[in-house]
Each structure stands twice: as C-alpha cells, then as structure tokens.
Amino acid sequence: MGKGSETTAMEIDASKSTSDQINPRFSINVLQLLKSAQMQHGLRHGDYARYRRYCTARLRRLYKSLKFTHGRGKYTRRAITESTVTEVRFLHLVLYLAERAWSHAMEKRQLPDGPNARQRIYLIGKLRKAVKWADLFARLCATKGDSRTSLEAEAYAAYMNGNLLFEQDRNWDTALKNFISARAVYEELGKYGDLENQLLCRERVEELEPSIRYCRHKIGESNLQTSDLLQIGEMEGPALDLFRAKLEAVMAEARSQQAASLTEFHWLGHKFPISNAKTRVAILKAQELEKDLRGPTADSLPAEKKLAIFDKIFTAYHDARSSIRSDLVSAGNADSVKDDLSGLDKAVSAVLGQRTIERNQLLVTIAKSKLTRGRDDKNEKVTRPEELVRLYDLLLQNTSDLSDLVSSGRDTKHEEVAFSEECAVRNLAFRAQRCFYVAKSYSLAGKRTEAYALYCRARSLAENALQKFQSLNNSDEI
Predict the structure, then answer these.
(1) Which residue blocks in 374-447 are alpha helix, DSSP H?
(2) DSSP label at 72?
(3) For residue 32, what are the contacts with CB-CB under 8 A and spacing of at least 6?
(4) In principle, which of 33, 89, 415, 445 could form an S-S bond with 268, CB 3.0–4.6 Å?
C-alpha cells in the first residue's frame, strides 16, 4: 500500500516537472520594468509624447524580433492568445501596447488649454484601449506567468480600469474598488523582494492614495476640503497626473465662483473695473499662486518648485492680458471703456514685470549658491561670474522696462512716482552687483589692474545705492 502511494506521488511530481518544461511560467517584474522605462524616456519631466514614441519604437523592435509582423501589404492584426505566448517577450508586447495607449491619452490631457470635447472623446477612447490591453495582459499572465507576475498584472489592470472611470467622472464606487484592489496588491508585494522593489511598491501605494481619497470624497464617504486636495496635489509621480488634472478642473470651478466677487483690480492707487469673467479667473489664479510664494511655507519650498510657480503665474497673467486686449478690440468707440481696459492692461503688465524681476532674482540666488560651492563637487556645475553678469543684464533691462511702463501715461499718481524712484534705485543696486561680477571675471582671468578699477567702481555704486535706499526707508532691499 505504502509502496503504491509512493509510486503515485513520484508520478505526480514527474508530471508536474514535465508540464512546467512544456508550459514554462514566465516572470516579469512589471512595476520595476515600467518605472525604469518611464523615468528614462520622458516621464521624469512629464513628457508623455516622448514616452509614447519610446513605446512605439519598443513595440516595433518586439514585433520584428518575434517575427510577429502584420503583413507586408494589407495590414491584418494578428491576435495574441494563450497559444501565441511561447516566450516572455509576447507578454512585454501586450504590456507596451497598454502603455502606449495610456501615454497617448495622458498626452492629450496635458494640452495647454485642456482637451476640448472632441479631444476628450479621443482621450477616453485611448484609455479604453489601454484598459483592453491591460485586461488581456492580466489574463495572459494568469495562465502564462508565475504567481507574482500574475498578481502584478492584476494590479496594473485594476489601476488602468480605475483611471478610465476616474476620467469619465462616473461610477466612482467602481473606480474606488479598482484603486483599492491595486493598492492592496502593492502593499502586499512591498513586503517582499529586494529593497528597490519594496520602495517602488510603497511609492505606488502613496501615488494611489490621493485617487482613493478623491473617489471617497465624490461618493460622500469623506469630507475632504479644497485645501486638503491641494496638499495632495503637490505630490509627484505619473500615477498622479490624472488626479492633478481633475484637481485643476475642481479649482477652476471654485475660481469661477470666487471671481464673481472680484470686480476691481487695485494697483498703485488706481482701481480698474474687471467686467470679463475670463480676466477675473486668470487674475484670481495668479493671485492664489502668489500667496504660495509669500505664505508661511514659502521659505521651505525648493527653488525648482518656486520657479514652476512663477511659470504658472506668468501663464495666468498672460491669459488675463490676452483677454483684456480682446475686449479692447471689441470695445469700439466707447472711450471710457477703452480707458479702463488700457489702464487694466498697464496694471497687469506692471505686475507681470515685478514678478519677472522676482523670478530673475531667484535665478541669481541659485547661481550664487553654485558659485560659492566647492569646485571638487564634480556632480554639480559651478557658476561662472559671466553667468551672473548676464542675469544682472536681464534685471537691468527688466527694471528699466518697468520704470518706463509705470511712468508712462497722463495722470501719474504719487504712488507711481514713488514706484519709479524705487525702480531707479534698484537699477543702481543691480549695476553695482553686475560691476562686481565683471570685476570677478577679470580677476579670474588674471587682469588685476582692470579688476581693481571695477571693484572700486562697484563699491562706489553700492554706497550710492545704499544711501538712496536709506532715504526711501526701504529696509527690505537694503
């Protein structure tokens, strides 16, 4: 009896090993593979077009190497089934088809003014295609992949299904289930494997959390405030880009409601009426972003983040100016309306000029920090004095343009005169600092006599600027 059962067990083991040899189980570390491809091919900087091109090129190479092309003449797609998958590259093929469709959808989502109605239909169509390929990938991995690969493929398919429902603004409960399912898998996988894989899984869990919280907010299971959503939106990662787009839509709706109360723009003693809703929303958006640069957490913001905020401020003010100038064209012969719009355009342009100066001063601060850094740090580019000279040239041009803009016009108020004087003093301070760095470049070039003369000139200009700042009682600039 014992001998017979032992023989049976041996036969089962033998049949299992024979089965594994005939139908081998393939292994793909899905998250690690995709993260590596995304970071190396554009998504580190949010360039979905570049990543899509990479996916297309990768697919072309896979089709060719697998001899799985679709005919030389008439295109006839060859279906990928369980019997087709004879090696791991077939699974890669399906995965990159899903990634290409997803990146194409995200590329449309990133259009400057957002996708219009027709583009949004196209975007959702691409997400549906990504879901189709992701589901096929999960089914194939269930039969052809090992247990870990199958689990990761299920999480990937759940994530893609969640993205589609998230973008469609419907079935929030189903979207929530998909995101929770994906999170549960990555939480479990984050407990095993090498350190890199554990970190990637934890990162993905953190990236999924905002989408889960937003879905709960939409179905009424949480009472998230707008400020909480904004805080979540500051997180980074490709998995959060759809969430940030959704957040921007929520914020645009909130701004439209707040903009109704923004009836005037105050600037240097002037009050300009704002009648156009688009102008109001653009100015309100810029003012909200300016608060981020002046708020209690502004000092802790990294320089790259501040530069990104400045770029958004410039875009908002340019949108406001574009709207104002469109109104000027359509104003006709109404002189009072034209005067108000011209004054508002001048005010917005002046504020834009001020923010440009602030941004360039931030670039100067960044450059100075690299100038004083040790030259033995080979990973960091050291600033040369000539680069600071160019930045100060920009600042001199900025202050001159701003002064000319403010002093132009017939009815110049006392505040405008004072502002022009302050611009002149700041121009003098920038000249002193420019002269100092010109002297420094001469000194490094071994031209000691010229450097000495320029240092003396820089000191004279600095002393003059300091006296004038003191006469203006401007302690912030001193």
Answers:
(1) 385-407, 414-444
(2) S
(3) 196, 197, 200
(4) 415
224-230, Cβ contacts within 8 angstroms, sequence gap of 24 or more: 226/250, 226/251, 226/254
C-alpha closest to that of 317 among 273, 347, 358, 276: 347
- At position 149, the amino acid (one-letter code) is T
- What is the four-CA torsion angle of 314, 320, 326, 331, rounded to 10 degrees? -140
- Whether the pLDDT of residue 239 is over 70: the answer is no
* SS3 of residue 137 by DSSP: helix
DSSP 8-state class, residue 411? S
How far are the Cα atoms of 323, 443, 448 from residue 459, in angstroms, in the given order?
A: 46, 16, 16
Question: Which three-class secondary structure state does DSSP give residue 361?
Answer: helix
- Helices 195-218 and 241-259 meet at what angle, rounded to 10? 30
- Give the three-class secondary structure for 273: strand
Let me know if 68 is exposed, middle or buried by CB neighbors in 10 A (0-12, 13-18, 19+).
middle
Are 313 and 286 spatial neighbours (Cβ–Cβ below 8 Å)? yes
Residue 408: strand, helix, or coil: coil
pLDDT in the model for residue 157: 94
Q: Residues 279, 282, 285, CA angle at the centre, nearest 5°?
A: 145
Phi, psi of 264 (to 5 degrees): -135, 150
Amino acid symbol at 127: L
Tell me the two tokens of residue 138: 């999960």
Tell me the average pLDDT across 284-298: 82
Please, what is the average pLDDT of the chain? 82
Query: What does 311-366 look like in DSSP terms, one character per residue?
Result: HHHHHHHHHHHHHHHHHHHHTTT-HHHHHHHHHHHHHHHHHHHHHHHHHHHHHHHH
- pTM of the entire predicted model: 0.58
More reliable by pLDDT, 175 or 375: 175
d(CA 396, CA 32): 49
| Contact of 63 with 69, CB cutoff 8 Å | yes
Per-residue pLDDT, 9 = 44
Q: CA-based angle 216:301:474, to the nearest 5?
A: 130
φ and ψ at residue 265, rounded to 5 degrees: -115, 120
The answer to whether the beta carbons of residues 425 and 471 sit under 8 Å apart is no
